[in-house]
Design a protein that fits this description.
Layout: E1 4-10, E2 19-24, E3 27-31, E4 55-57, H1 63-66, E5 80-82, H2 84-101, H3 109-117, E6 119-121, E7 127-130, E8 133-139, E9 147-152, E10 157-160, E11 185-189, H4 200-216, E12 221-224, H5 230-240, E13 247-249, H6 252-262, H7 270-279, E14 280-282, H8 286-292, E15 298-301, H9 310-318, E16 325-328, H10 337-344, E17 346-348, E18 353-355, E19 359-362, H11 371-379, E20 386-390, H12 394-406, E21 410-412, E22 419-422
Parallel strand pairs: 3-4, 4-5, 5-6, 10-11, 11-20, 12-15, 12-16, 13-14, 13-15, 16-19, 20-21
Antiparallel strand pairs: 1-2, 1-22, 2-3, 7-8, 8-9, 9-10, 17-18
The structure holds zinc ion (ZN) (2 copies).
Length: 423
């Protein structure tokens, strides 16, 4: 039986800069190569020589999985395996990242273009073969286009969950866990290993009824949202509940929605998504922005953490009136303007600082598996499977490792740069 070597280039005891080098049968496959965005300056994963790579497999478009990939395409570069949707959404997000952080990013748009030229598009269920190693993609249920990836050489089967959601949402089907059943090694995210998300239906009802409370008393509600995935999920929730106030969509969420619409058949309910897109009114210009902040309406706009994008303008305009509302629907990284609004009731941007009189709410619309779904994924593996735990803070990683051991699996929490050999 051949050896397998895993090297963690990032996402070791942290959420961010995912990057795992898998070496088997003299073949090197890199799973994800992302950045970390929790500090002012983006963080990059450990270096890997692009020329040793036989392929790069990208799980999904989020920058913590995709944002460092152009670094691998400075000269030539390996084939980039990705779903079509992930490829297009990654290009959108990386371009925006380059624009916002260009002084800190060690590549340019020419490397992004080279990356896109090396694409080798994969569908769920399709197989890519390189020197006796097979790479397959499965639906991860996390954001549109997201994938669970398996790599196998006849002796070993490794499955990388990427970010995955075991539960279905309005937008997506839950993750396809079938590749986990006969995996020898499962590299698993652990972001929310410590707790469960609230029941989906209850959470939606609560969200919609609170929106009505604000709107029916004459207010405007800003929903700061991630452009990819979350904005579309919110629109689907509103369409599902036949929401009858105007819903505006702004910023990069407009482009992302158009891209996702092209691949509508991958979504859980393509018809609901079409209804959601028909319902959303796209904001076209500054005149329209100025007008709609006075309207009795909902505005869905990035950035989700109020760090930039049109949501900052809307927040400045709506925050003072107590009839208005700001409803957060995304995870808020500590120290971001959005997190500070939740913690202190004060909003601060480069152009304005003040107390938020508008109603502040936060809803858990997470696209990650909660504790229950992570345990279900572990239980889906065979008894002697090895669970390699990544993409979590230390506490949740330890809890998931303990739970895995209690279920008869071997659990490993690798450190940054550490090489794990399985023989
Ligand atoms: Zn993600
Ligand atoms: Zn992630």
């Amino acid at each position: 039986m051949s050896n397998v070597k895993l090297k963690l280039l990032g996402a070791a005891k942290e959420v961010g800069r995912a990057g795992i080098l898998v070496s088997m049968s003299d073949t090197n496959i890199l799973l994800d190569y992302g950045v970390s965005l929790s500090e002012e300056e983006p963080g990059f994963p450990l270096h890997v020589k692009p020329r040793i790579l036989d392929a790069v497999a990208l799980s999904h478009a989020h920058l913590d999985h995709s944002g460092a990939i152009p670094l691998l395409y400075v000269s030539a570069g390996p084939p980039l395996l990705s779903t079509a949707l992930t490829a297009t959404l990654s290009e959108l997000l990386i371009r925006d990242f380059l624009k916002l952080s260009k002084y800190y990013v060690p590549y340019e748009s020419s490397e992004l273009e080279s990356m896109m030229e090396h694409l080798n598009l994969q569908e769920y269920g399709s197989t890519y073969s390189v020197s006796g190693v097979e790479v397959k993609f499965y639906d991860a249920g996390h954001i549109p286009g997201s994938a669970i990836i398996s790599v196998e050489d006849g002796s070993w089967k490794i499955v990388y969950t990427g970010d995955f959601n075991g539960e279905r949402s309005c937008l997506l089907n839950g993750a396809d866990l079938s590749p986990l059943r006969d995996a020898d090694i499962v590299i698993m995210e652990s972001t929310y290993a410590e707790y469960d998300h609230p029941p989906r239906d209850e959470n939606e009802e609560n969200f919609v009824s609170k929106l009505y409370e604000v709107l029916e008393s004459g207010g405007t509600v800003l929903i700061p949202s991630f452009a990819v995935g979350r904005a579309q999920e919110i629109l689907c929730v509103l369409a599902k509940h036949n929401f009858d106030f105007p819903v505006y969509l702004d910023g990069m969420a407009k482009t992302a929605s158009e891209i996702i619409k092209e691949e509508g058949e991958l979504l859980r309910d393509p018809e609901l998504f079409r209804d959601a897109m028909d319902m959303a009114i796209k904001v076209r210009n500054w005149n329209m922005r100025k007008r709609i902040v006075e309207e009795n309406a909902v505005i869905v706009s990035p950035a989700g953490m109020l760090k930039g994008g049109p949501s900052v303008y809307y927040m400045e305009k709506i925050m003072e009136r107590p009839e208005n509302g700001v409803f957060f629907v995304s995870y808020l990284i500590p120290e971001t303007p959005g997190r500070k609004v939740i913690e202190t009731g004060i909003f601060s941007s480069p152009t304005k600082k003040g107390v938020v009189n508008a109603r502040i709410e936060w809803f858990d619309f997470s696209a990650h598996s909660g504790k229950t779904q992570l345990l279900e994924a572990i239980e889906a593996t065979k008894k002697n499977a090895k669970i390699v735990i990544v993409h979590g803070r230390e506490e949740p990683e330890l809890k998931l490792a303990k739970a895995a051991r209690e279920r008869g699996r071997e659990a490993i929490i690798p450190s940054l740069g550490e090489e794990k050999v399985f023989a």
